[in-house]
Amino acid sequence: MVVKDKVVIITGASSGIGEATARILAEKGAKVVLAARREEKLQILSKELGDNVIYKVTDVTRMADLEALAHFTLAQFGKIDVLVNSAGLSPFSNLIDKHVSEWDAMIDINLKGTLYGIGAVLPYLVAQQSGQIINLSSIAGHVAHSGSAVYSATKFAVRALSDSLREEMDKAHTKVRVTVISPGWTDTPITQSITDEKYKASTQKAMANSGMPVERVANTIVEAINLPEDSEWNEVILKSKN
Question: How far is Cα 93 from Cα 193, in angstroms, rounded to an integer?
Answer without folding.
Answer: 11
